[in-house]
Amino acid sequence: RLKCNESHLRAGGWSPLHSDRYQWLEVDLGRRTQITAVATQGRYGSSDWLMAYVLMFSDTGHNWRQHRQEDSIGAFPGNSNADSVVQYKFQQPVIARYLRLVPLDWNPSGRIGLRLEIYGCPYTSDVASFDGSSSMLYRLSPRPSRTARELISLKFKTLRNAGTLLHAEGQRDHSLTLALEKGKLLLYFQQGSCLGRQHLVSLGSLLDDQHWHHVKVERFSTHLNLTVDKNTQQVHIPAELSHWDIHQLSLGAVQSHGFLKPKRNFHGCLENLLYNGLNLIDLAKKNDHQVAGNVTFSCAEPVSVAVTFTGSQSFLQLPGSTGWTLGVVSLELHFRTWNKAGLLLTFDLPQEEAVCHAVSFRKTFKVDMQRGSSSLNDGQWHSVGLRSRQDHLTITVDKEEGSSAHTSISFPFVTGSHLFFGGKRRNISIIYILCKICMRLIQCLEDKEIIPSHPPFLSLSLSLSLSLSLSLSLSLRCSPSHCEHGGRCSQSWSTFHCNCSNSGYKGATCHSSMYEQSCEAYKHKGNTSGHYYIDVDGSGPIKPQLIYCNMTEDSTWMVIQHNNTELTRVQPSPEGKQHSAHFDYSSEEEQLAAIISQSDHCEQELSYHCRKSRLLNTPEGSPFSWWVGGPGPGQVQTYWGGALPGSHQCACGLQDTCLDPKHYCNCDADHDQWANDSGLLTHKETLPVRSLVLGDVQRLGSEAAYRVGPLSCHGDKNFWNAAFFDKETSYLHFPTFHGELSADISFLFKTTASSGVFLENLGIKDFIRIELSSSTEVVFSFDVGNGPLEVRVEAGVPLNDNRWHSVRAERNVKEASLRVDELPAATQEAPADGHIHLQLNSQLFIGTASRQKGFQGCIRSLQLNGITLDLEERAKITPGVRPGCPGHCSSYGSLCQNQGRCVERANGFTCDCGLSAYTGAFCHKEVSASFKSETSVSYIFKEPYELSRNDSALPSSIYSDMTLRGEKISLSFRTSQSPALLLYVSSFYREYLALLINKHGEDVQTTLRLLFFVRNLADGRLHTVTIRRLTDTVSVQVTLTHTHMSLPHRLSQGCLRNPGTDQLARLASLGFTGCLSAVHFNSISPLKAALLHPDSPVIITGPLAQSSCGSSSPANPYLNLISLFDFPGDEVVSDCSCLFLWFPGVIAVVIFITVSAMAIMARFIYRRKETYRNQEVKGVQPEDGPEFPYSSQADSQSAPSEHQKEYFI
């Protein structure tokens, strides 16, 4: 004992003869005791003390269980000298009679030495034993009043993995059943005797280990808690159980006619069964029960030993039976494991130099068998039987399920043979080695167990570790399960795995969401409008929901639908009652609240169409109609769309535009004509609309219709929440971060500094930190008690480029990971049996308050376990830190396509598509239209003021200054027509440019001809053409779909006195039939103006319908560039050509658009007006940029003029 130092006790203490890991000290307390603490001390006056040890407990002295600390740590810290006392108090008392202490480490300068004291008190209990065919039934007296809480608690122990523990019945034949299935505890609910059972919850694993397990079932009004040992799981109960009283309880079996019964009754012991404080086993002792079968009030335990093989060198050697000489051999054992392959049993065959396996035989013969489709490495107990008689051998696996294999062979066993169970026998080469397994109930011949309580003939390998243990020491790595969000846990001997399929989450423990938290986040990854899964709280408890994201040029909307968004006609009720409507949303309540809270703006349309149907009545009267909106059940609202909360008005009342000035709604005028009150509800506190009540719809002649639109929200406060840190010493502080078992941290940063700490949180020993260690490396470091661990990501490119970069770090009980931008994640595995709880106690610092170098730059959207920290609010009151962080186009500007311009905003950016022929959030959406043969679109430029006043007297110098030096034209088309005119541009001086498709042989006289060898362009496929001219240089870039263009040809311009306008007019008269998209002439998009901006100077003739020509950006386009310079012209002819005719000058333009076909060929004609035929265009050197210079503002719509000219064919 402690402090024992009397000389007659040999100085006190225990010290075994050999100091190795196969020694132990066992204490018999004489009876079951409630043990609360143990204390150790070294041997008095020596250098002998323990530095680490393991504690094991047992009720019988042969079935042991290792005690583990809260973090699943098996080893306990010992002493550092021979005199000091180290005490360990158990968080929960341990009930046991026997205690065994196994030394793990001791003073290297001494030996194993120990003085020990155990603290506790006697333990009393009421026990009942069931033999698998017995049961007890209790009929409970009705209670005068219903309680808000019911509690059932008990302890059980068993060797069977299935059986009914408890069955409770109430009124209307509703019942709850607590049953053991495959070593797990399951709770079922059955509604009536004819309906099937509903599985409510399951908990625990490997509960058939012949150790006591504590179970508690608590029922509240809305939910139920199931507790097994230290683990609790909550489940919402069916409505039928909310007000349900238990009438009778049956133990060990289901004693009720008509109910579905489990396969087996319970076989084992129950202890301290309490129902709302009533001791049922004590009542049973007083004969206040009904008993079926043999029930005893003591727990008789079978004397069996479970052996655990913990390594490949562990084996158990036992002698054979003397009865083997008779030619009859019978052997059976039970095993459980999670390993997929291994060795169970070997023994020698004396006449053959061979080794025999229980499931495979080497050299002589081999028998392979499987047990159906189920697995034998599922952690459950499985039986293997081997029986040999004369020349017949039978092997049976799980005999109750009937799996067996037979063979005929002579099997000569002799007396003196030895059996080797598990492991690897020395000097024998075995192919299959089972490293880790548990065995029990090993029997031979006459069904006698051959493993006694303390077998003297165990042969252990000379391993440095405890390689074989007389206990069932499988680690339950899935109980409790560390898999989150519904992930399914499975385990091996040394670790566990989480199956995250169909959960919406990912990672080692299914902790991290697979989806973004808002439509705004999807947009900034380059996504366009569509349906996306949104997880508003990331790794939090709210499930992902499918939501439509409408990404426009100005805003990104989250659209949440409900069950009725259409205009609905009110049908009069025959009872003359009010009409009510309820709206069920596609998103769950928690997600709705989170979306509304984190959005900058939300709105919902509310409209009412009426004919002699009043809406809100007079301001003084009670409203005829109202709606309910807001969080939770909502509140009654008596204002209408477009008005303010509490105003009792409609939009017209707020604007003073109602039909009757005496009323504040149009419908309250009660006119016998249709009217409406419509508007948007924009106050988030009253959204969403949950129900609607319409009162004045039953009068004769009354008619009404209503519409409640979907809930739409835009803006994400969390995504743009940012702070700028001016100095390295600047920091923000927040409350302690609690991420004991799982922690994920994500944020974006941009900086010009080469290093700095992003955040850190410290504990007494534990800590967590993320830092930029160099300009190219991010480090995630932490310590949970196993020593510091670092995860590093080397980006390979500078991260201090003042652009946004994303960081995501995660730490769980299995691994730690770090990801930067879209680089591969770096991971580090956690120790299998180390500390798992992260214990922090200081404040969380963004930046650093320690001596390390702080972060200088911007941090945005910082989230810890799905919760966003409000950096902006904290920065407003913190010196050295500023709220917000501008400069987003440097990171996101590349998302703007097709000449779209990135525009900075305080929270984010937008793409300005004003100079683009495209539209959409990223200027990515083509503007397309289908044309008939009679359709044309003309865009009109205003004439220069001087030219319109006196064009005949215009000097040549003015003409030269207004001459376009270059043009850029691009368009896409799809057509099957040939010939056809695609585009026509004319100037005020009868100069023109034309792009047309022509058949082979039908040439147009031009000053310049350019044709291509290509396939048929009028083939109904999409073709794109881009034409650039800079003075006397013209380039044509053609994109063909699924077609290779022939090699480019070049030609020079020539002179042709006859312009051939009659032939051009003949082709143009055919019109164009097909689809045209993305038409762009310099800075003008005429087709976009015609379809989306009706106030623009556009004239539309014939039918014009918006449509989709197809993808505007093919995956693998074939691009060819044709450049034209001054050299002799050649002519190339194709089957179907695209001609490009050019007459430059001052292009005050009419664009005739009839476009959308697929391949392009260009013919270039350059002609001057006869009056200015000898004028020379000022030469300009070509530029590399995409823009072309102008010498005047001739194409500006702002030029002062009273006249307009229009040219089209």
Automatic annotation (TrEMBL):
Q: Where is this region: Disordered?
A: 1176-1209
Spell out the Gene3D superfamilies in the cross-references: 2.60.120.1000, 2.60.120.200, Galactose-binding domain-like, Laminin
Its taxonomic path starts at: Eukaryota, Metazoa, Chordata, Craniata, Vertebrata
Q: Which organism is it from?
A: Myripristis murdjan (pinecone soldierfish)
What residue spans carry the Polar residues bias annotation?
1190-1201
Subcellular locations according to the entry: Membrane
Q: Could you say which protein family the record assigns here?
A: Belongs to the neurexin family.
InterPro entries cross-referenced by the UniProt entry: ConA-like_dom_sf, EGF, FA58C, Fibrinogen-like_C, Fibrinogen_a/b/g_C_dom, Galactose-bd-like_sf, Laminin_G, Neurexin-related_CASP
What PROSITE patterns has UniProt attached to this entry? EGF_3, FA58C_1, FA58C_2, FA58C_3, FIBRINOGEN_C_2, LAM_G_DOMAIN
Name it.
Contactin associated protein like 3
**Which UniProt keywords are given for this protein, alphabetically ordered?**
Disulfide bond, EGF-like domain, Membrane, Repeat, Signal, Transmembrane, Transmembrane helix
